[in-house]
Amino acid sequence: MTAQRTTAAGGMETAFGFRKVGEGEKQGLVNDVFSRVAERYDLMNDLMSGGLHRLWKDAMVAWLAPSRRPGFKALDVAGGTGDIAFRIVEASGYQAQVTVLDINGSMLAVGRERAIRRGLEGNLTFVEANAEDLPFPDSSFDAYTIAFGIRNVPHIDTALSEAFRVLRPGGRFLCLEFSDVDMPILDRIYEAWSFQVIPRIGKMVAGDDEPYRYLVESIRKFPNQENFAAMIRRAGFARVTWRDYSGGIAAAHSGWKI
Ligand SMILES: C[S@@+](CC[C@H](N)C(=O)[O-])C[C@H]1O[C@@H](n2cnc3c(N)ncnc32)[C@H](O)[C@@H]1O
């Protein structure tokens, strides 16, 4: 679970990777991480995951199976440089309208350029906003997706309630996130890769290891599959299930607003 404690000053504390920070501090620190990595984000994703993130994203969008009817509306929260939104548009036969929402303008700027290069800008809208306070009316979207984003959000319960609010009845929630590895040998290899190799790749390729330490630490602090499913249910979603990818290194959670 996302444990919270009280600071000496009486405010709430939350996890920023392995550090405890004041609740109000976390978002600023997260924004700094993604502003620092934005330009190298896509390259680093390939290097850090050995390309696996592409397969996990393909699998989540295949599970979503976006409608090919014109007017299908999806919201991709923490959408960053656009990977999920591009896949939804392609899987819908270029019918879907996808809103890419992210709190970080640098990540969105990279996403916008990539969308133009792919000729997808007609299907996409980019919105700079917070997952905890979505600037949309109730029941606006057929689908809500969030990939590798929710563990960065300071108040996960608030983001989940917002997801529920903006989905139409019958709408689908899908979240892709790093999760709990269920095989001890794989877990040991994964731990060594995460803590020994990834920060070094960050230093070599992006000239900075600190953001990558946060990214791997934050993965370890995120609730496991079971506990995260319980949080999704508490937000009001029904038929909550998940699929593990690569032995649980990543997992996609699905829920429905009924
Ligand atoms: C690891 S990236 C994931 C990007 C993309 N979804 C992907 O899978 O490649 C995490 C993203 O979450 C965004 N983010 C962090 N906190 C957020 C918040 N409160 N609201 C919206 N986006 C947020 C960051 O700016 C960053 O772009």
UniProtKB/TrEMBL annotation:
Family statement: Belongs to the class I-like SAM-binding methyltransferase superfamily. MenG/UbiE family.
Which residues does the record give as S-adenosyl-L-methionine binding sites?
T81, D102, N130, A131
**What GO molecular function annotations does the UniProt record carry, in alphabetical order?**
2-methoxy-6-polyprenyl-1,4-benzoquinol methyltransferase activity; demethylmenaquinone methyltransferase activity
- Quote the InterPro entries the UniProt record gives: SAM-dependent_MTases_sf (IPR029063), UbiE/COQ5_MeTrFase (IPR004033), UbiE/COQ5_MeTrFase_CS (IPR023576)
Q: EC no.?
A: 2.1.1.163, 2.1.1.201
SUPFAM superfamilies associated with the record: S-adenosyl-L-methionine-dependent methyltransferases
Q: What is this protein called?
A: Ubiquinone/menaquinone biosynthesis C-methyltransferase UbiE
Annotated function: Methyltransferase required for the conversion of demethylmenaquinol (DMKH2) to menaquinol (MKH2) and the conversion of 2-polyprenyl-6-methoxy-1,4-benzoquinol (DDMQH2) to 2-polyprenyl-3-methyl-6-methoxy-1,4-benzoquinol (DMQH2).
Q: Name one Pfam family in it.
A: Ubie_methyltran
Q: Where on the tree of life does the source sit, at the highest rank?
A: Bacteria
Q: What class of enzyme is it?
A: transferase
Q: Which UniProt keywords apply?
A: Menaquinone biosynthesis, Methyltransferase, S-adenosyl-L-methionine, Transferase, Ubiquinone biosynthesis
PROSITE patterns listed in its UniProt record: SAM_MT_UBIE (PS51608), UBIE_1 (PS01183), UBIE_2 (PS01184)
PANTHER family registered for this protein in UniProt: 2-METHOXY-6-POLYPRENYL-1,4-BENZOQUINOL METHYLASE, MITOCHONDRIAL, METHYLTRANSFERASE
What is catalyzed by this enzyme? a 2-methoxy-6-(all-trans-polyprenyl)benzene-1,4-diol + S-adenosyl-L-methionine = a 5-methoxy-2-methyl-3-(all-trans-polyprenyl)benzene-1,4-diol + S-adenosyl-L-homocysteine + H(+); a 2-demethylmenaquinol + S-adenosyl-L-methionine = a menaquinol + S-adenosyl-L-homocysteine + H(+)
